[in-house]
Amino acid sequence: MSARPRQRKPGLPRRLVHVVLILFALVFLLLFLVLPLATVFVEAFRQGVLPYLSAIREPEALAAIRLTLLVAVIAVPLNVVFGLAAAWAMTRFEFRGKALLGALIDLPFSVSPVISGLVYVLLFGAQGWFGPWLDAHGVKIIFAVPGLVLATVFITLPFVARELIPLMQAQGSEEEEAARVLGAGGWQMFFRVTLPNIRWALLYGVLLCNARAMGEFGAVSVVSGHIRGLTTTMPLEVEMRYNEYDYVGAFAVASLLALLALVTLGVKTLLEWRYRGELAAHAPGGH
Amino acid sequence: MRRRVLPGFGLSLGYALAYLGLIVLLPLAALAWKASGIGPHGLVRLLSAPRTLAALRLSIGGAVVAALFNVAIGLLVGWVLVRYRFPGRRLLDALVDLPFALPTAVAGIALSTLYSPNGWVGAFLEPFGIKVAYTRLGVFVAMVFVGFPFVVRTLQPVLASLEREVEEAAESLGARRWQTFFRVILPMLAPTLLTGFALAMARAVGEYGSVIFIAGNIPMHSEIAPLLIVQKLEEFDYAGAAALGAAMLLLSFVLLILVALLQRWSNRWAEVSQ
Known about the structure:
The complex is a heterodimer. Chain A is mainly alpha-helical. Chain A has 2 domains: 13-44; 48-282, MetI-like fold (Orthogonal Bundle), CATH 1.10.3720. Chain A is built from 13 helices and no strands. Chain A is globular, with a radius of gyration of 24 Å. The model of chain A has no long low-confidence stretch (mean pLDDT 91). Chain B is an all-alpha fold. Chain B has a domain at 58-224: MetI-like (MetI-like fold). The radius of gyration of chain B is 23 Å and the shape is globular. The model of chain B has no long low-confidence stretch (mean pLDDT 91). The chains are: A mainly alpha, B mainly alpha.
């Protein structure tokens, strides 16, 4: 080989390549993210503001909003308590089977939403394990509110724990040990040291957990039975109206859910920007 | 053994285990039990039924194709967001998580309207004879939508930590830009791209809400496997629904284990290359 320096052919100017790549990315994001989001609001207001307002003021819509809030108000705190307990056990103590426990916590993320609902039908439905017994005692779980709550709890179980575990692992237990040595009681230590240290991560987890709880469709659709005004959450109301060709009504309720998603994204971005150091380093969120 | 200074081991672990047992393990046990009730012959008959096969083929095949597409487009979007500075970059970055935050039913009706023959995009594609809504292409579009953030979010931290020196070295040795990309950057990103692929695919395989509105749900053609489970439930075929559910669950576990192995591999890769 000769030692002659290789001549570089002049390629496309670097700047042009950048602009072309950015444009490609923008077109994709426009087609797949911005336009669907815009569609929701345009369709909701297609016939003007008054039909929109009356669509979300109908009794079924109000019942769906109330039910969605009720399910979230039960499911989210349950998973917050679980997340705190699981994170405390997993990050402050050594025990056998820890990796298995971690995998179990993540499990609901890898289960199809339909299967998450199905398992509760198999457990509490008419032909399920406890179905006949529940029936004899007049307790309704499937096609009733308890089933909606259970399916939602299952789906959203990992969110808080997943947020807290990596952060508490990284923080270590020195401050808590110091509090104990200085004579703090268990709960005193928890409320004065642990909780303030993890507050932003906890809020972040609650935010994602809540968004999912209010927006879940597949799992609740299986256990709901679609009884209007009684067991239809907002996403189910959207589905029923859409299937009845009530597009303005469907998109009006959908616009409220889209608004929730936007607020969630906004607060999430704000938390990431303002408190990055007090949040866990992330793996991409689940289902 | 060191004396424990911190309290609450028994309480927290006991509570977490009891909760997981009740919410996750007990229901999954019911699934396994109901699924086994169908028997080996029933299982073979169920899984070899043409309608089941068609649904599984669409769910798995669609998820693979959508995940491949997401790897390509996710690499582009991740690259642009990490490497280039342009106005509106932060907004776009936040927007990437939209499919995580937007309820699937909302995404479903929005995509269905957008890509229907008189929707904004559908009307544009119609003259070219491309039909998206109520076809398999619609299933693909919905699967791309739900899987997209997984690839970008997996890729971003790795892209940000790539050593520029390696690229500069390649260029100073005379590599063209495309050579640097395909011979230097892409091999370094391979494990991450595979992880993103597996995550996006796992999500798309089980996806229900965003797909059923745009798919048209024609049996043997555009009917996905989760919908078939719902239909078996509506016909009170609990054993069939459970068996199909268990089969899909098994598939997700295989993907999950694959992701874990890939992540371990890419971590080791990172250690070796340092």
